[in-house]
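User: Assemble these into one structure.

Assistant: Restating your components, then the assembled model:
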Amino acid sequence: MSQTPPGFSVKARDGNARCGTLVTRTGSIDTPSVLLYTRRGGPLSLTSPDMLAAVTPPVQGVQLSVMQFMENPDAATLRQYGRGAQSFLALGPYPVLASNRDPTMYEFGTRPSSEKEVHVCIHSGGHMVGPARYMDTVAALQPDLFVTLCDEITADSRSKRIATSARRTAAWLSTCLELAAQHSQPRQQQEQQEPAEQQKQQQEEAGAGTQGAAAAAGQEGDAAVAGPLAGSLALAALTGGALPAERTRAAKAVGDRSDVAGYAICGLGTGEDPAQRPALIAASLEGLGLAPEAAAARVVFASGVVGGPDELLEAVAAGVDLMDCGFVAQVTTGGYALTFPLRPPQGWQPGDAPSAAGAGAGGADVALGSDDTKMNLWSTAYRLDKGPLLPGCGCFACARHSRAYVHHLLNAHEMLGEVLLEAHNTSHMNGFCQAIREAIAEGRFEQYRAWFRSLRSSPLVDMTPPGLAQAAKRRASGPAGEDAGVKGAEDRPADAEAPAEGAGSFGGKRPAGRAKWVRV
Amino acid sequence: MASTSSGAAALPSSDSPALKFKVVATQGRARSSRMALPHYTAHTPMFMPVGTQGSVKGLTTAQLVELDCHVILGNTYHLENRPGSELVAEMGGLHGFINWQRGMLTDSGGFQMVSLLHLAEITEQGVTFQSPIDGSAMLLTPEQSIAIQNRLGADIIMALDDVVPTTTNDPARFEEATHRTTRWIDRCISAHSRPTEQNLFAIVQGGLDTRLRQISIQQLVERDLPGYAVGGLAGGESKDDFWRVVAQCTHPHTGLPPGKPRYVMGIGYPLDIVVCSALGADMFDSVYPTRTARFGVALVPEGVLKLKNAAHAHDFRPLDSSCGCMVCKNYTRAYLHNVVTRGISSAAILVTYHNIAYTQALTRRMRAAIEEQRFPEWVREYLRTMFPAGDVPGWVRDAMAEAGIDLAGVATDQPAPGAAAAEQKVGAKSARAEKRAAGRARGPVAAMEAE
Ligand SMILES: [Zn+2]
Ligand SMILES: [Zn+2]
């Protein structure tokens, strides 16, 4: 464990962009960074810990949604287990950030929230979640960072609803922090678990719970052990919809608090114009009214702000340090490999002719959604392509496999296709963040940003295939995911993409030289 | 060459142009062997995971190496449909295309057609079937199957055989199929264009008729192929019929040559693998371990663990405490219980990973036991763990008696009547039927089924 106490420090800044180090009780995160996306605590296709360890540059941290632990498993189960989400989910050595939502779906609003609780739809159906239940779950997860409960609203919310959201979120912040303090207190051994529950379990199944018990036994020498949230960093939720003035007002209600390590800008990626986002982020941060030294010690997390590399860059330019990586889940599910270049050519100056765009984009099939940031491996153009997903990429997938193989795996609905794409895309986003950190540290972030913008004539706005957003909403709106079963790639949202050849069906024209059955 | 003595000098072996087989230890009928293939020296008895379309259900080839897989399967029918053998050949063969440096085996494609396509029909020419693309009549001949497999480039390729389900009640059809399989092996041999790089295995047919099986063995052995398979099993016959056919084909004197590899097709239940190995078989394949994983069923020494069972919601033990695999080292049943069949691929892959770790550890332990001359003890311990009440099924008792393994002190109780009934049942043909059968895990799965 690090000697430095948990907290954030800025190492360098360039405009509002900053690079820093977030020390958590598990390990430190270099910022700006994206956090690995998980669903119910599991990466979508990469097995942990082996395939996460293969990601290069390394995974900085993992994001999970507290709401997905309201049931199956719930807080009681996790407490009984006793060693927190990082161990329960085998998330390796990476710091865990527990956030209040899943960036790829919108779980709220099916039923109205109240002054006391938000309504959230998860895999097991609808739940009303108030600060107590929320923090009880956070404590059971034992994350390194957590976002306080937020009354989430979508970008189309009107002022009155936004004000309500701001009032509730600010009130819940105080409650959450009080509860966090309680959950941080050293406690007697027997308080670690609920005795009645524990006994019942032991009667029910001898042998079960031995790991949790062993973990507890290891600490038995101490009369009291640290509370589950001791050293865990709180991020205050900031709401405010898509109106800058409301964002500022909501942030003012939170303000500078010494008991938070930073802030979570909530409510983004819910339908607002991505071009509007930097202003919304700025409004939230300005509203906090932090003195420069306080701002430099507070980390800023934003969920739902990354719909593509440009959006990530703009969020960083607005002062965001940590972002979710739901974007990788979306491009991977669509069969894309990210191909945008990570570093400008040596000696690039503003005004130079754009350098070669995404290495994979030569002859990109725009109809398939390919552009100069990503390529669609469903495209038949890659049937015989022996090259790696991205030439020069040293990731697990590119070091071992060809575009042709990945194309085949997608066509054949084999899970391995998404494994390889997720490995590459995760590595690529980590490489992007690393390049951004270098640029900020070297004081050339604005130049980097100018170069990145020059790669395309018109900025890419929304790269989320429209069907995916719908599919995500559908998933979130009901327990459909629960019954989805393991259909693997067959589960692919049919409306997400319209791959050539009817997505691997036998229909349509078949290129010569395919099946060689003898016709009689 | 057919010696069964344990003297090192007398251990059977064979030397084919692209395959060197060497038995390194025997105990009773069981043998531990090394099979040097063009890409890898496999250790047998071995289980070969099925990679139908060029991947084993979400596992990377790096993971398959880590899991100690020596040979993996590809299905000719599926691979020819997509991406096509010509494309695969252009991409460096299956090995290059999927980046797998160890052994590979492809099937003939015939069984897939018969089992997957309703309108498949076998004539002297080959297997005719309706094209899944446009419904037109298509034909797979022995020559065509071999040509495709030559392009795919696996270390071991399988002859196109005339498969009749063992449950068919038509002695004349079995007679015809047995002789046709022999006629077709000659056509396969003539068509085989890469005999120094790929090994053509013949497949013994004959249904449950010992006379026909003996004819098939004799006719195929005369062709002096690098290895032999036992076909037509795991298709719904009773376990009693099943083991007797295997025992006949692996018989030390009248069975397949002891110096050559013997492959029982479609076998993936751990108990079946143990029984067949005790009888002297070397190679097995089945979709069972990987398919059942996706339905949330983990293989464990006691049998199977149905992860969806509510009892696992608070069970913080690993899947199998005796398994040292990546999954068992890191995960609890409680975690997997919640996510395994819930559309999170990584969770399904984790159980798949463990199940392959299980089959590979099982065969590794058998090899070590044979080499250390403690195989009967090992079998007894295996059965004691799986049948703690001593209710070892009758067919296992009979097969072990044939294998010369004394089950005194292990098979103590009467065979469980329920278990016996379940085991005599026909094999699961569909994924849905497989799901139902998953818990039993002791009946056959259709041979060479693809995933
Ligand atoms: Zn790559
Ligand atoms: Zn295991």
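Chain A has two domains: 10-188+228-333, 336-357+367-453.
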